[in-house]
Amino acid sequence: MDVTLIKEFEGCELEAYEDVVGVWTIGYGCTFYLDSSTVKKGDKLTSEAEAEELLLHVIEQDFLPILRRIPTWSQMNGNQKAAVLSFAYNLGARFFANPGFDSITRLLNSPEQWTDTAEVQRVFGLYVKAGGQTFPGLVRRRKAEADLFLKGSTQATPMRTNSQISGGQRIIALVDTWLKKDWSKQASELDDTQRAFVGKGKSYPIQGFCESSLETEMGGHALAQLDHNAGEWYLFVEHWQLPWTQPFEMHTQTLPEWNQVNWKDWSSPVSRYFNVGEVTRQDWERIPSDATHQQNIIKIARLLDEVRQWWGSPLYVNSWYRPPHIEQRVGGTGANHPFGFAVDFRPAKGSIWDLQHCFEREWYNTGKWNGGFGRGANRGFIHLDLRHTRIWDY
User: Fold this and answer.
1) CB of 348 closer than 8 Å to CB of 312
2) What is the pLDDT along the chain (394 residues), one digit of tens a residue?
3) Sign of the alpha-carbon dihedral angle for 250, 255, 261, 262
4) Which residues form the Peptidase M15A C-terminal domain (predicted)?
5) Contact, 343 vs 374, CB < 8 A?
6) Which of 45, 63, 66, 65 is nearest to 54 (CA)?
7) Distance in angstroms (rounded) separating the CA atoms of residues 104 and 125
8) Strands lying side by side in the sheet with 390-393
């Protein structure tokens, strides 16, 4: 998720200060730290990078889970979501459908109005007062948010082109399933021009695969561009074997160090059960070049090996390493995947709900897992990362 507007209008203070209502604040308007302790007088941050990490944590934990409840959130693209996030960060995460926010609520509930420049600017421009007084800073912020929202309304998320995806890639149906033109509807609600039945074992060559909001939106669906001019179709990820989810296992006992991995070879192992192709989704844009990121990938891969051994069957990777430009493209928070220490996955066999429940009971609740645990079974994945211990629902 793009936080440029938030950073611009909040400003960055590395030393704690009292805000207008007497609350000690630091960084980009944060009042709590990663461990949930409160900011106190005399506190200092070491750098803007540390302030940004704190900002992203706050957004991930306190804002996005609430904003995702907006009924039309999944219809917004990255720019529109960033504009709404900035609005919420300034006026409160729970603004939607609450008293005093009738106009912005109606606008967000009316996608047909999102291209109406005058209406978007009018609605955002209503929220420029504090204590009955109009503040120039709020006027500028609402205008910037409206401009970003309108910019988003005319720019669709680009489908990855053939030059961005390895040649010869295929998707294979793991069960009887459907390809659909509208992810939000059941196949039974679509006519034959909007759906295509796919039998178990059927495969298709693909030219592109759009991860945009794969983990958190579209109900576990993703958009694939089929080869041979067959067009773009939504598929339910859990029903398909994707090119980078081929089961893998090393046949030697020596695990490679981060500087021994051939990061340009999809089959090069990063651990016993996972390889570079799974880390990068066989995408040249995702090859990690930063040594720290490579080390993080190796670290979480070894831990994922332990999860895989405990579960007793292969795990399919939905998404792993996403460099910043990829993270921005897919609408991620920027807090985990760009650093290599986060992975979203699902079981190749068995119920994802069972895996999520058992992991929570036997790993998270017992302290065996000391990082982040995102419960996303309802969207077709489980999230793990190596930041501090915390748990949340998607």
Assistant:
1) no
2) 688 899 999 999 999 998 766 889 999 989 888 877 899 999 999 999 899 889 988 888 889 889 988 988 888 888 899 999 999 999 999 999 999 999 999 999 999 999 999 999 999 999 998 878 899 999 999 999 999 999 854 333 433 433 345 556 788 998 899 999 887 778 888 888 889 999 999 998 887 776 544 444 555 677 888 887 788 888 887 788 887 766 656 555 678 888 899 998 988 899 999 999 999 988 888 999 999 999 999 999 999 999 999 999 889 888 899 988 777 766 677 788 999 999 999 998 889 999 999 999 999 999 999 999 999 888 888 999 998 899 998 8
3) negative
4) 274-385
5) no
6) 45
7) 10
8) 315-319, 342-347, 381-385, 372-376, 390-393
For the beta sheet containing 195-198, the strands, ordered from the edge strand earlier in sequence to the opposite edge, are 195-198, 177-180, 231-236, 221-226, 203-210, 170-173, 240-241
Write the DSSP string, 257-308: PGGGS-TT-TT-BSSSS-BHHHHHTT-GGG----HHHHHHHHHHHHHHHHHH
Cβ atoms of residues 143 and 125 within 8 Å:
yes
The number of residues in the chain equals 394
List CB contacts of 200: < 8 A, sequence separation 6 or more. Answer: 173, 174, 175, 176, 177
Short-list 202, 198, 195, 199, CA closest to 170: 202
Radius of gyration in angstroms for the set of CA atoms belonging to the chain, rounded to a whole number: 22
> What is the token pair recorded at 136?
């120039």
Alpha-helical (H) ranges within 76-201 are 78-91, 102-108, 117-124, 136-153
Residue 209 backbone dihedrals phi, psi, to 5 degrees: -145, 115
Task: Quote the DSSP letter at residue 370.
Answer: -
Beta strands in the chain (DSSP E): 13-18, 24-27, 129-130, 133-134, 170-173, 177-180, 195-198, 203-210, 221-226, 231-236, 240-241, 315-319, 342-347, 372-376, 381-385, 390-393
Contact between 297 and 340 under an 8 Å Cβ cutoff? The reply is yes
